[in-house]
Amino acid sequence: MKVLKFAVIFLVICTLAARPAESEDKKEKVYELKEIVVTATEVPDYVQDVVSKDEVSRPAISGSVLDSLGSQAGVQLQRGSAAGTESSKLRIRGFGETRLRILKDGMSIQRDGSYGNGPVDWSMFSAEHVDHIEIHRGAGPAKFGNTFGGVVNIVTKKPSEQPQTRISGAYGTFNTWDTQISHTWKAGPAGWAISASHFETDGYLRNNFTDRDNFSANVFFEFPLEVEFSAGMSYSDSETGNPVYNRPDSPYYDSGEPDADERELGGPGISARLLQGVLAWGDESLAEDENISFNASLTKGFDSGYARLDFLLWNQDRKEVYYDAADSGKKIYERETEAEDNNWSLRGEAAFDLSRHRVEVGGETRHYGWGDQTVNYMDESYFNASVNFFAFIREGFKGEPECLTYHALYAQDTWKIHPRADLEFGLRQEWYEADSIDPEAFGYEWPAEETSVSENNLDPRFALTFRPWDTGAFTARAGIVHRYPSSPEYFWWYLNKGMNFFNEDFRPEEAKQYELTYQQSFSDVMMAEIRGYYYDVEDYISSTSVPKIGSVYYNISEVEIKGMEIELSANLSSDMRIWTNFTWQEGDKSGDPWDTDNNLTHELADLPETMFNMGADYVYGEKFSAHLSLNYTDSREHFKGAELVTLDSYTLVNCSASYRFWESKGNSWELLFAAENILDEDYEEEEGYPMAGTTVMGGLRAIF
Where does the TonB-dependent receptor plug domain lie (predicted)? Predict the structure, then answer.
């Protein structure tokens, strides 16, 4: 809360100091601002969909911008809770976040993911900090590496020609509060975009509360010779409750809370070492996270192009505290982790228009690993005898902060070979190094032999776009993509290598991807797009949890994923737009050393065969807007340990609206409202964790 209070005071001071006197000049500048906003939302040609600022800023019980992606074709959300982002995951075309590229302003923000943190920290994004979100499905141009499913680029706000401050507050189900404030202004050659937010909720599941503060700031400076420098930081500080096992077979069952499994929000898990296992910890058990990242960029414009250099540094510190299930005031375990320890990346790119060619070159380097884990407190009476063999339970881990490196160079040429045809060809060279791991990092004696992984690959990308008529276009795309092991994948494979568990070798994934797209517009009234795709993935990396061993990562010999996405939208009038999209997908596998009995009959787990979304957007001038959507997800088969279970299909109906009830001299007030799961559907996105029924939020937004 201290961070939020400081941010609010700072933003208010900036706003008051920045307010200019009313004049005719101001009216002219407001007109110029509208032009800048339009051009700011222009996106690269390869981007297929854009989630607008209005969609991102709709109130949501989760408090996450991730929810704004849920109606997009090919997108599947896997949330283990109605509120908070700790267990939320994004999938596109069946590929999870380790196989996507999640960017902020073009810079990859995938974290190391060690100690159970996951590859993306969605809590870092306040809706007021985001201008729009760009989505590209598939491997795409050569500038994108280490991705199969696609690219999600979160574009943050840029300075506005006139100072603008936005303040919003919303309250809803589960005692949820979401308060946000932002300020942007460009004064001469300098500008800034600053935002802060506070989100808190009791949550839907037992002991799944969230209390989070965010602060983000970016400053921009324009210099002569078309040079621009920008720098910024993002900070979040949160407390999230560890969901408690709450089923009738528990002696601590609370019938007033939803039946659900437990979830440890940190890693490595301790439940297998506790006398009562998952029943050992109870209410008030939590994880505290402090995330901070710093970014800087330098851009030089030219008559025919630009050159840009980006740098990103990120850290995460986590504290986990477990309390007794029978006595929430009695602490049984506490540890602290440097989950992300000065991980950094550097990226450079340049693009030039040369006659009928658009030439792009660039590269990146990424250095990452994990930090130390220290046990601050342990009540040994709650632990079984296995702790005598596992030093990490008593003492923690030694970190490996620079264990992995990734380097890449790419070159790409988009050639307008004909007024109706473009040819794109690119090459991407990648190098991946994973060093040997210090035996002290394992936390116990293990017959792990010293080893390392070194890979380099040259990946070609090809695309041809043909426009047989002015309103239609065909695009054929093909390419090879590699995906390299993350730190958790590499660590656990390394640890179990000495056991010869499953396969001794560990190889990066290689995917051959083919895609065909057809786009058709009908005047300004209707748009249609259909995409068919096929992936042939060798050495697909999968994992399971083995009792008394832990996580085990291994290669599946071959995985094939194919599918189709259809999108339609129509403007019924200047005020009303309707839209729909349909996804069909199928995954087959062979050579799975875990599913040797072929329980999944060669299919992939957690992959719905069909998904369907439809909705309507209504806008009446700048006074009123409303949004209604329906989202359908097919049933999925899922492994619960070694048991195969089926997650039922579900249909969600959501709506939101805003009404500007007062406006004067550039200042305005708006009413906000949102309702989710209006049909009160009983469903799960993650096995064992039911989602909430009907939820509502309402609030106010002021713009001045």
Answer: 49-151
